[in-house]
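lol ok so funny story. i was supposed to be doing the assay writeup but got distracted and ended up predicting the structure for this chain instead. priorities right. anyway since i did it might as well share w the group, maybe its usefull for someone
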Amino acid sequence: MTTFPFAEEFSFSEARSHLADIANEVIYAGKRAILTRKGKQVVAIVSMEDLEALNAIENQIDLNDVKKALADVKKRGTISLDAIKRKHNL
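and the output, tada:
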């Protein structure tokens, strides 16, 4: 099981009983919470700031992938759908 700094683990039943306290720790203390089910980490509760940072990272990865794909198209060119159909006897 992976360990995360600044994260505390709670079972779902603990989280249900203490959700407001957990949320306050996340919001005001900058902590993260990991919820477990049968001892397995399944859900994380993070601040909006953390979620926005994760989203920005994912967007940057997507942008890099698009740039690579466009560079590949520029280098190799494209093939028409009709040419693909002919090649595969469709």
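The helical segments are 12-29, 48-76, 81-87. The longest strand covers residues 32-37.
back to the writeup now i swear
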